[in-house]
């Protein structure tokens, strides 16, 4: 995976992780009374112990039980570090296993992530807000915005891959803190220490443009970065993402509906198929979007085929080379090309 520092966040989900989902958390943001001055915020996770020495007990995981009283504090903490939320229920056999696995995995990130375990039987509003269809389910909150992760069980490697991507999304939105170790001279419980390295000037220019919604300027900055350093993987991925943002920014709801209708009526209309592929990838239907372009390439030849192939490679950069769906699409592309 590439460095997270310059990766922008595509709209609605150019990869499985995004900050612009349909979940509305505002109804859950009921602040409890403020704690006494100097006291840690309610629900703020305890600081981890320093790394264990030989013969000592390992550090405790960064975990807190999510309740109505502390949910807002966790949302606010997500402006400093991503908060992973495991939604579980006593009637779900796999819930306990997932929460335990996430506790260990999150702990291994040494304060860059916080885990909240949410019993949906005790806090049903949270399940409704996150539109949970089954438990266990893992979601995250970054800068107060929901980020879908996965539903059901998952292998450790898959979870780590998603969490690595989550940290990229967080970094692209300026969330790069770390929960302090709590020892002498370090940040106390529930605080975060910024560990942000300065971005290269062109990457910073692109990031600032993304923040203001100026995707054309961001794209120009990334193109200049690639001219200066063609092997800059972060600039390449950033360019693909902001170009997707720019294409989607111009579409109204009516345009979207018309585009989908046209693509259904004309399967060999290049612009329609590429447009719907953008919508599918941005909407989280990554396999559908990539598969649509692969199918077009398999049916067509000449310049249009090459145009579709180039767009597909750009969407691979958007989704991320480590994503299993990209690997599958690459295999399917090889079959239709050769």
Could you characterize what this model shows?
- The protein contains twelve helices and five strands.
- The longest helix has 17 residues, at 156-172.
- It has 338 residues and is α/β, with parallel strands linked by helices.
- Helix content is 46%, strand content 8%.
- The model is unreliable at 1-24, 29-61 and 181-196 (pLDDT under 50).
- The protein folds into two domains: 4-172, Glutaredoxin (3-Layer(aba) Sandwich), CATH 3.40.30.10; 201-337, Alpha Horseshoe (Serine Threonine Protein Phosphatase 5, Tetratricopeptide repeat).
- It is globular.
- Strands 1-3-2-4-5 form a five-stranded mixed sheet, with helices on both faces.
CATH class of the largest domain: Alpha Beta
In DSSP terms (H or I, runs of 4 or more residues), the helix count works out at 12
- What percent of residues adopt helix (DSSP H or I)? 40-55%
CATH topology description of the largest domain: Glutaredoxin
CATH superfamily of the largest domain: Glutaredoxin
End-to-end gap = 28 Å
CATH architecture of the largest domain: 3-Layer(aba) Sandwich
Q: Which percent band covers the strand fraction?
A: 5-15%
The secondary structure category is: alpha/beta
The main sheet orders its strands as 1-3-2-4-5
| Overall average residue pLDDT | 77
């Amino acid at each position: 995976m590439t460095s997270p520092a310059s990766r922008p966040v595509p709209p609605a989900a150019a990869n499985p992780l995004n900050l612009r989902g349909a979940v509305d958390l505002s109804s859950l943001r009921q602040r409890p009374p403020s704690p006494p001055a100097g006291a840690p915020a309610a629900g703020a996770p305890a600081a981890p112990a320093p790394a264990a020495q030989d013969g000592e007990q390992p550090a405790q995981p960064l975990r807190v039980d999510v309740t109505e009283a502390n949910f807002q504090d966790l949302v606010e903490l997500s402006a400093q570090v991503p908060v992973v939320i495991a939604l579980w229920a006593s009637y779900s056999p796999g819930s306990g296993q997932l929460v335990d696995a996430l506790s260990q995995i999150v702990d291994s990130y040494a304060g860059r992530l916080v885990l909240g375990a949410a019993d949906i039987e005790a806090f049903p509003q949270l399940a409704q807000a996150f539109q949970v269809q089954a438990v266990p389910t893992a979601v995250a909150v970054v800068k107060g915005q929901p980020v879908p992760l996965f539903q059901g069980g998952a292998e450790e490697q898959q979870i780590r891959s998603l969490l690595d991507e989550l940290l990229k999304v967080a970094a692209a939105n300026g969330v790069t803190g770390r929960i302090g170790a709590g020892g002498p001279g370090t940040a106390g419980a529930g605080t975060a220490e910024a560990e942000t390295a300065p971005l290269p000037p062109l990457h910073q220019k692109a990031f600032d443009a993304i923040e203001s919604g100026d995707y054309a300027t961001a794209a120009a900055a990334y193109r200049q970065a690639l001219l200066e350093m063609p092997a800059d993987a972060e600039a390449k991925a950033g360019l693909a993402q902001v170009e997707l943002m720019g294409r989607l920014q111009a579409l109204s709801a009516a345009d979207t509906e018309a585009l989908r209708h046209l693509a259904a009526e004309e399967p060999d209309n290049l612009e329609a198929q590429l447009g719907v592929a953008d919508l599918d990838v941005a909407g989280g239907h990554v396999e559908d979007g990539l598969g649509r372009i692969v199918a077009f390439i398999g049916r067509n030849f000449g310049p249009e085929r090459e145009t579709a192939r180039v767009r597909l490679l750009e969407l691979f950069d958007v989704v991320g080379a480590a994503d299993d769906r990209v690997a599958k699409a690459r295999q399917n592309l090889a079959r239709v090309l050769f």
